[in-house]
Write a structure and sequence with these properties.
The complex is a heterodimer of chains A (about 260) and B (about 70). Chain A has about 260 residues and is mainly alpha-helical. Chain A has a single domain, classed as Four Helix Bundle (Hemerythrin (Met), subunit A) (Up-down Bundle). Helix content of chain A is about 75%, strand content about 0%. Chain A has 9 helices and no strands. In chain A, helix 4 packs across helix 6 and helix 4 runs antiparallel to helix 8. Chain A is globular, with a radius of gyration of 20 Å. Chain B has about 70 residues and is an all-alpha fold. Chain B has one domain. Chain B contains 2 helices and no strands. The longest helix of chain B is centred in the middle third of the chain and has 57 residues. Chain B is rod-shaped. Classes of the chains: A mainly alpha (about 260), B mainly alpha (about 70). Chains A and B meet through helix 2, helix 3, helix 4, helix 8 and helix 9 of A and helix 2 of B. Chain A: Pfam families: Cytochrom_C_asm (PF01578).
Amino acid sequence: MTDRVINWYKYASPQTFYPLAGKLIPWFWALAALFGIAGLTIGFLIAPTDAQQGEGYRIIFLHVPASWLSMFIYLVMAFWAGIGLAFNIRLSGMMASALAPTGALFAFLSLWTGALWGKPMWGTWWVWDARLTSELILLFLYIGFIALQAAIDDPRRADKAGAILALVGVVNIPIIYFSVKWWNTLHQGASVSLTKAPSMAAMMLWGMLLCALACWMYSIAIALMRVRTIMLERERHTDWVRALLSGNGHDTSRHP
Amino acid sequence: MHWNSFAEFLAMGNHAVYVWGSVGVMAVLMIAEPMLLVRGRKTLVARLKRQLRAEQHESVANRSTSNTHRSQA
């Protein structure tokens, strides 16, 4: 039992995690490229025309993955922030900080592709309805998290303040997800649901799922890259970072 | 293959602006993010190496001055 606890903490130490993350990054990039090519090929070259929306519906292959990831990354970010707050593990706070910018990127892309989809289909770029407004709040939560952490010099205190903001903001995620059910909105219902068969052609569904997987792999690769940079910055006074910088580390050859 | 011609593919059934406007912005941002990260990382590593060298230089200088002090004493 105690052995297991020690092992757990070993992987939670930046010194062990840093080279491990470095080895994983190329694999996640390869998977992202693979899923991305497959998803975009199906979505843009093979999938049939939508009966109601014509070819304009193809924005779905970007909009749905971006929206899913914007919500999912927030949950993962809040999870790491919460773990960091509860157990005071350095790596957790760094993971939360590493995820926030990519989450903000996907929240922005969700709104952008949504606006470009809304204009031809609804006749408007934007409406203040529940789904769109709660997604905009999600973008503001990400920006607030990043700004709050940037405003506090001490990383430990920045982590704590950010964690509280992230955890309070979690309440917004079910609001986004269920908004199309709870309120009368212009936004269409869920494209894919766990409880009933999807209401779309198989090719469309596959294209969407593969694009979502690509975005997921992209997010992991990016988060690992960013967390390594954060580690170097925050741990710059430790022996392992000094050894790495002066060329005694293991993987300085590939990732300086 | 769903399309009859490349022109038809580009036209996206008269929704070209919306579809390609989405694809373009998403592609640009998802290419820019890793590029900015790599650049930021290089800058950071260079800065940290410089600081480390400066520190080591300083500590060597300090040691040599303290040695000369000792030999003088």
